[in-house]
Design a protein that fits this description.
single chain; transmembrane; 2 domains; 0% strand; 61% helix; AA-permease/SLC12A_dom; 126 residues; flat
């Protein structure tokens, strides 16, 4: 999946054109090699001294994923504010959830707490 994302980014001029090169069967070979090379970081947990590096990589991945969801919550809050400013009834939308926007605020608060406490041992000097 990461290979196709990287290929799509290259098509949109958001990644180097190198990732557009495909094999005769249509496999984006350089995008595949780039995403596969990242998976080799999982082998860093094998050695006892390398477990610290793997934990850093794991926390970095977790926080970046949570940051994506935080961005989604903020985008929804702006979307909801735009609906209110234009006086659009949410019931006219193809999909509306009855607990919005309050659930978004709770989710945003929860995700921010998780991000903060995931690095708390480093902040507190542990």
């Amino acid at each position: 999946m990461g290979t196709r994302y990287l290929y799509a980014l290259a098509q949109n001029n958001q990644a180097p054109k190198l990732f557009l090169r495909c094999t005769n069967r249509g496999i984006p070979i350089w995008a595949l090699l780039a995403t596969t090379s990242i998976s080799f970081f999982t082998f860093m947990s094998i050695g006892s001294s390398s477990s610290v590096a793997f934990q850093w990589f794991q926390k970095l991945t977790t926080v970046s994923t949570l940051s994506t969801w935080i961005s989604i919550c903020i985008a929804y809050m702006h979307f909801h504010a735009a609906l209110e400013a234009q006086k659009v009834n949410r019931a006219s939308l193809p999909f509306s959830f009855p607990l919005q926007p309050y659930l978004t605020y709770c989710t945003l608060e929860y995700l921010c707490m998780v991000v903060f406490f995931s690095g708390f041992d480093y902040i507190a000097g542990g």
